[in-house]
Fold this protein.
Amino acid sequence: MKIKKTMKNNESTSEERITRLEERLDELFTQIHHLQAFVSEPIVKPNTADQTSPTKDEAINDIMENFDFAKVYKIMVDYNWVWFDRKTQKTRVPTLEEIKDNARELLERAWDQLNETEYDYSGWKEIFVETGGFNAWVCECGKDVVIPERHLKLRFILEEWECGKD
């Protein structure tokens, strides 16, 4: 009887360990998923003199040429998503050109503000600039490398929720 009892205790301990490991793996995968939501490429890549980050104009033009502003405009019309018009002092759905102009302005502001930001302890700095549903994000890693990596991203956010952040 004692032998069976000991085996059952060991089995349950092993099962508990496996359960704890599975839970920890789930936590780690969630953390990885959150990081991937912010970075489309690896955070740290080796830098050499041959590698260069895009210039401000190159990065912004790439986003402006490839971002689906027509989709954003359709969503804004469908949801009656309005912005305040300073000229008329009223709210209205912006035109496609106003949406593009606002996005370009946000990207430029984010890029410029990053230049004025100090690196954190890990050699990383980032800026978020948000308005009207748009989120412009720029980061730079590589405080102690020859050529720092800079990434620029534009998002249009319909809904977001965050819970449990300290």
